[in-house]
Amino acid sequence: MTEAAEEERAGDRAYVTLQDVARDAGVSLATASRVLNGTAQVRADLRERVLAAAAELSYTPNAHAQALASSSSKSVGVVCHDVSDPYFAAVARGVMRTAAEHGMLVMLASTFRDPAREIEYVAMLRAQRARAILLIGSGFEDRDWERAMAAELDPYQRTGGRVAVLSRHRSLKVDAVLPQNREGAAALARALLDLGHRRFGVLTGPRALTTVHDRLGGFTDALADAGVRLAPEHIVEAPFTRDGGYQAATELLRRENRPTCVFAVTDVMAVGALAALRDHGVLVPGEMSLAGFDDISIVRDLTPALTTVALPLNAMGERVMGLALREPAARRSRIERVAGEVVLRASTAPPG
Fold first, then answer.
1. Is the pLDDT of residue 261 over 90?
2. Around 321, how many Cα atoms within 13 Å sit in the side-chain half-sphere?
3. pLDDT digits over 62-109, tens only?
4. Measuring CA to CA, which residue among 36, 65, 31, 32 is closest to residue 159?
5. 105-110: strand order across its sheet
6. What is the DSSP letter of 169?
7. H or E stretch at 252
8. CB 262, CB 347: distance < 8 Å
């Protein structure tokens, strides 16, 4: 063999993976892993084939993957937008309950909807060899973010790390629990149309968030299907918070041709909007109906109680944690869709 060929072969060996060893030995990935990690008894002939293939390929076990395979890492990183938001708190409760049942410890981080901070947290969790990383909350309509996040998650998964997300992350090849935001918002629009409303306003968060994009799109499309146009000046964008909802509702009241019904794309924004309408002497639902989305627990206790699209938030947390705990042998990206249910409460009524 020439010197150049030897160097090329040595270079190839630097990238040998456990999958290469399994293929060369003619065994499953799980069998190769058990032999090389010593985690279970394997038939002698299979063991010899795996060891021979590993020696031939100059395979070097990855320390990160071994730590994960042997369960020496018991930590789960949960990255969300804002843990003080009741939506994320309810989901996190489901995550923590399921993690505790499996002896896992949860580390929780808030990004405050900063894409760069989200990537920094994921990089930190990779460095700390967390057993799983969960991304809870909307992805971003941002190609640079998608590429940067994939650059962190792809090598993490190749070395045995588990990843699951809750909400839409378009380009990430990971397990996901997907609330049906577009369908739920469309169903809400149809329910409000059935009450007789034709002039609508929408209080929305930043449109770069996939959740906002889907809920706003579903709502406006359903109106359009019914021949109702949502005026651009009646769509008000503000921070995705209670104060953002207050700010957006206040701005909407300054504009001409007030709507008879307002949709806030989250319940948290709707809570702020309800306070703004009250402070400006607008009767709900007598003068203006109001609806939200998510069904966080507090909205049932408001006066009036809030119409919303109800999502099973605790159960969604349990499901996304369950996806992250799936065995590696079963690892093909799985999508679990969660439907919302329109719940009409006292905050909506036929237009006066």
1. yes
2. 26
3. 545 555 444 446 899 999 999 889 999 999 999 999 999 999 999 999
4. 65
5. 105-110, 75-80, 132-136, 162-166, 175-179, 335-338
6. -
7. helix 242-254
8. no
Phi, psi of 68 (to 5 degrees): -70, -45
Report the residue count for the chain.
Answer: 352
Distances (CA, A) of 55 to 21, 72, 220, 303: 9, 26, 61, 71
Element (H, E) at 64: helix 63-69
- Residue 72's CB is within 10 A of a number of other CB atoms, namely 10
Delimit the domains of the chain by residue range.
3-61, 74-178+314-338, 181-311
Cβ atoms of residues 137 and 164 within 8 Å: no
Measured distance CA(272)–CA(262) in Å, rounded: 12
Max Cα-Cα span within the chain = 89
- As a whole number of angstroms, the distance between CA 223 and CA 229 comes to 7
Q: How far apart are the first and last CA of the chain?
A: 89
Top pLDDT among 239 and 32 is at 239
The predicted model scores a pTM of 0.77
Give CATH superfamily name and number for 74-178+314-338.
Answer: Response regulator (3.40.50.2300)
Q: Which H helix or E strand runs over 308?
A: strand 308-310
Nearest CA-CA partner of 317 in 144, 161, 99, 39 = 99
Q: Which amino acid is at 11?
A: G
Is residue 226 within 8 A of residue 193, CB to CB? The reply is yes
Topology (CATH) of 181-311: Rossmann fold (3.40.50)
Q: Which fold has domain 3-61?
A: 434 Repressor (Amino-terminal Domain) (1.10.260)
Long-range contacts at 55-62 (CB < 8 A, ≥ 24 apart): 56/24, 57/13, 57/16, 57/20, 57/21, 57/24, 58/13, 58/16, 59/16, 59/17, 59/18, 59/20, 59/21, 60/16, 61/18, 61/36, 61/37, 62/18, 62/159, 62/160
